[in-house]
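R.M. (postdoc): so does anyone remember the format we settled on? I'll just put the structure tokens first.
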């Protein structure tokens, strides 16, 4: 039931200076006043009140009560926040006191879901708030914070308005079926459609960067033993996580961490050096390395330039064939012994070649710039541009674009207005999925269930 009053601990579990218990719903103030004994008889919205915090008539803590009156609150309902000391036990005790006064325990994401239902947030903004909370890199934070402020929603609203005008235009013509769309009207509609198509196209393209930032790119470092894969891995993580030795076949298990490189989020795996091996454990490691190649979207193929290429290096190039591969030529601090011909071959099979010395921590910026360019991150201002950042939004924009192009085709080839209209309406309803003017209950539930309780 929507008008039930809900409550939860909104701060992270664990010991801290302070914690916040949030209450939302019609009875929020009435409940909060029974739990926090503050001096003033009237609690005004958006002011802080100090008071004793009670449970079953006993004072258990003291803290601050803040009241946000509907509709000027996060959820759009009456909201009270009780700020108490941040111990695990005391926070739980304050929550229990609130629940004992009639509030119901909130489920995961229920506050945000209410904000969405009450029209305080669009669906893409609600999703972005979840991403702000989950952000682990600077790019993720900048992008999700911008989308949470409504950058994408504003763009969708703008495109949507142009589409509605177009639809109105088309309807006006359909109402007079004997008349064809006049040439002038056809021209106006075509240029309005061009605008819609170009905006949808740039939104669709933005997913390359949006996905690289938000969802992350599965990336594997591969190469023959001793090429310097683990050294590169440590350089990118800026931490000595993987074991580095001069013994060929050091790495066996696949080691994985998330790292931010050139603005992209890489889910980076260090793998065992690939070669013919008789060692049982190493053989398993090599199998796993090959499996990683199959499931990765980006490869860093490491070659040791200090020695002449071997058949293992050719095998690495074979694995890179047809994949997104960046060649990383390592050990530039040593004289080059790898052949020019082999470097040329690398150049034809890999998207880019970067020279590094993992030992001297050189080449980091070049590799970062290469990744940045590959995912078109330079073309996007993460803090201000409308960016598509998940598969749900991407499929909606792609569909809207296909239908808008269909409408343009129908218009250009002089089809009847009802055919143009049909495609335009399909395009509009696809676009409406992004901010859930047409999202199903199932989709909405799946989005909010990913939130934590208390958000
Ligand atoms: N001179 C020089 N030596 C390097 C460089 N990078 C790595 N090494 C050395 O090369 C050897 C192997 O480095 P690792 O990073 O363990 O190589 P790996 O590719 O992970 O090797 P495996 O795990 O055995 O497959 C170590 O002795 C490193 O110190 C470099 O840039 N220059
Ligand atoms: Mg290694």
């Amino acid at each position: 039931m929507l008008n039930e009053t809900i409550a939860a601990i909104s701060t992270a579990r664990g010991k801290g200076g302070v914690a916040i218990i949030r209450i939302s719903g019609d009875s929020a103030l009435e409940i909060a006043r029974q739990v926090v004994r503050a001096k003033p008889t009237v609690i005004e919205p958006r002011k802080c009140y100090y008071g004793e915090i009670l449970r079953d008539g006993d004072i258990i803590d003291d803290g601050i009560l803040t009241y946000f009156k509907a509709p000027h609150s996060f959820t759009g309902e009456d909201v009270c926040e009780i700020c108490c000391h941040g111990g695990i036990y005391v926070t739980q005790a304050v929550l229990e006191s609130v629940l004992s006064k009639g509030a119901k325990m909130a489920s995961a994401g229920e506050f945000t879901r209410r904000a969405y239902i009450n029209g305080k947030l669009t669906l893409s903004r609600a999703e972005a708030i979840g991403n702000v909370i989950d952000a682990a890199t600077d790019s993720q934070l900048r992008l999700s914070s911008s989308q949470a402020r409504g950058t994408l929603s504003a763009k969708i609203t703008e495109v949507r308005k142009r589409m509605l005008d177009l639809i109105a235009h088309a309807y006006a013509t359909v109402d007079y079926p004997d008349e064809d769309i006049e040439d002038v009207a056809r021209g106006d509609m075509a240029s309005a459609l061009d605008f819609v198509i170009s905006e949808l196209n740039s939104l669709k393209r933005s997913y390359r960067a949006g996905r690289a930032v938000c969802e992350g790119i599965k990336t594997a470092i591969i190469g023959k033993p001793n090429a310097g894969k683990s050294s590169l891995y440590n350089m990118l993580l800026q931490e000595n996580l993987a074991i580095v030795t001069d013994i060929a076949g050091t790495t066996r298990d696949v080691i994985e961490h998330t790292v931010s490189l050139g603005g992209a989020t890489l889910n980076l795996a260090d793998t065992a050096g690939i070669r013919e091996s008789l060692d049982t454990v190493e053989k398993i490691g090599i199998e796993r390395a090959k499996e990683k190649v199959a499931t990765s979207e980006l490869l860093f193929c490491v070659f040791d330039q200090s020695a002449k290429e071997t058949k293992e290096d050719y095998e690495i190039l074979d694995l890179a064939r047809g994949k997104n591969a960046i060649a990383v030529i390592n050990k530039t601090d040593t004289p080059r012994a790898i052949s020019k011909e082999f470097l040329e071959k690398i150049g034809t099979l890999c998207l880019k070649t970067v020279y590094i010395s993992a030992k001297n921590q050189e080449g980091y910026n070049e590799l970062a710039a290469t990744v940045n360019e590959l995912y078109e991150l330079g073309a996007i201002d993460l803090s201000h541009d409308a960016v598509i950042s998940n598969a749900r939004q991407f499929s909606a924009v792609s569909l809207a674009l296909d239908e808008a192009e269909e409408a343009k085709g129908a218009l250009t080839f002089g089809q009847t207005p009802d055919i143009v209209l049909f495609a335009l309406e399909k395009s509009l309803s696809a676009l409406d999925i992004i901010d859930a003017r047409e999202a199903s209950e199932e989709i909405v539930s799946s989005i909010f269930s990913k939130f934590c309780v208390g958000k």
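R.M.: ...and that's the designed sequence above, right after the tokens. Also worth knowing: Residues 223, 225-231, 244-246, 248-251, 272-273, 330-331, 333-334, 357-359 surround guanosine-5'-triphosphate (ligand 1) (CB under 6 Å). The chain has a mean pLDDT of 93.
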